[in-house]
Specification:
alpha+beta, 13 helices, 36% helix, globular, binds adenosine-5'-triphosphate, Kinesin-like_fam, microtubule motor activity
């Protein structure tokens, strides 16, 4: 097969962890997001093609080349192959959604749990991918749209012939309401942060949300909001994000300073009044990790530096869990290390860290010459995860 037209593996059938790579477009110098003056000055004189360290080779592989200044040393061009899909800098949110998120949502609508986590250096586009903006809605909004579209479509199919509750109308809004008498969608959203270098803690970001405590892998006190349609869901999330910890740094004008998790849960048969065990419901978790950062690059000091240490530690623990899972799967004699205990996020995501539930990772990277080190570290570290079952 022509490598340029390689097909994305069918995520629903594949047993492997979905590992996606998205390359952020180069933002113009001085545009928010690239604020380190040292790099801005240098790159102003370089032609655009010299600024690129990462290029799409095929739909599933990339070529990483050191910037010219580094090339004189020992480093050379490397190819990273086997991603579920590589998204080029001009890929749209819809394209990313279609290839990466939609199979997880379809699985979720069948009652299965799943998780998508965005992972990558600070400023590489994790938050943009997950939440997007008004003109480019992200994975969460697009997922809500798909959930409400598919559920109202299936309501139409299931309910019109039966004419439930004696309704004669074929008004789709009425049918849609009928559907949600039978099923409800709940959203919860929380962040894990570390204030002033103290112990990490979880905070509910929903209205009237409180501090949360974790018992085993369950958060006590996490509030769920019932969602009536996708716009309502989008509104709840946008309000919650106003409460999320963000700060300007040298690498991102609005850098996330916390790990943020959104959970969607559909509950069936609300009308029969039975209280079901929530543990059996399918939950779709979407995780926006705070971006690992190098001190030299961010120039963080004081509180920002303490936050950085927390962010880097969580990223490291997350990677150690996946590394251990991979080694254990390759050699079952090798025990699965209990790294998940070392951070709140991995404790919460334990089932995923132990390979018991389906997950997908999207690695986000910047392709500028000055991003070579960060991009190279991430690809070296994370590309083996594509072998995880
Ligand atoms: N695909 C994209 N298209 C256009 N702009 C993008 C894209 N990805 C990221 N950006 C822009 O780049 C900047 C940094 O992105 P974002 O805040 O999503 O990074 P991040 O990885 O979440 O960083 P951090 O870990 O510091 O929170 C933002 O201004 C964002 O709008």
């Amino acid at each position: 097969m022509d490598p340029a037209t390689e097909e994305t593996p069918d995520l629903a059938k594949s047993e492997n962890l979905g590992l996606f790579l998205r390359i952020r477009p180069l933002l113009q110098s001085g545009v928010r997001g690239d604020r380190n003056p040292r790099f801005r000055r240098k790159s102003a004189f370089e032609p655009w093609f010299q600024k690129m360290c990462l290029r799409v080779k095929t739909s599933r592989s990339v070529t990483l080349s050191p910037p010219l200044a580094l090339e004189r040393g020992r480093t050379k061009t490397e190819v990273y192959n086997g991603f579920s899909q590589v998204f080029s800098p001009d890929s749209s949110q819809e394209e990313v959604y279609e290839k990466m998120m939609s199979p997880l949502v379809e699985d979720f609508l069948k009652g299965n749990s799943g998780m998508l986590a965005a992972f990558g250096p600070s400023g590489s586009g994790k938050t943009h991918t997950i939440f997007g903006c008004n003109s480019q809605p992200g994975m969460v909004t697009l997922a809500l749209q798909q959930i409400f579209k598919e559920t109202s479509d299936s309501a139409r199919l299931d309910l019109i012939p039966a004419k439930p509750f004696g309704l004669e109308s074929d008004n789709p809004f009425i049918l849609y309401d009928i559907f949600f008498l039978l099923r409800s969608l709940f959203i919860s959203i929380f962040e894990i942060r570390c204030e002033g270098g103290k112990e990490e803690r979880a905070f509910d970001l929903s209205p009237n949300g409180v501090d949360l405590t974790m018992h085993r892998s369950t958060l006590k006190g996490l509030h769920e909001v019932v969602i009536s349609d996708w716009r309502h869901g989008e509104f709840v999330i946008s309000q919650a994000l106003l409460r999320r910890a963000t700060s300007p740094t040298n690498t991102n004008s609005q850098s996330s300073r916390s790990q943020c998790v959104i959970n969607l849960r559909i509950v069936d048969d609300k009308s029969n009044g039975e209280v079901k065990d929530q543990a059996n419901d399918g939950v779709l978790s979407i995780v926006d990790l705070a971006g690992a950062e190098r001190e030299k690059r961010t120039g963080n000091q004081g509180v920002r530096l303490l936050e950085s240490n927390f962010i880097n530690k969580t990223s490291m623990v997350f990677c150690l869990c996946l590394r251990s899972l991979l080694e254990h799967q390759k050699n079952p004699m090798k025990p699965l290390e209990k790294h998940f205990q070392d951070s709140l996020l991995t404790k919460y995501l334990r089932a995923y860290m132990e390979g018991k539930k389906r997950m997908a990772l999207i690695l986000t990277v910047k392709a500028g010459g000055e991003d070579y080190h960060n991009t190279s570290c991430l690809l070296k570290q994370a590309s083996p995860y594509m072998e995880i079952k």
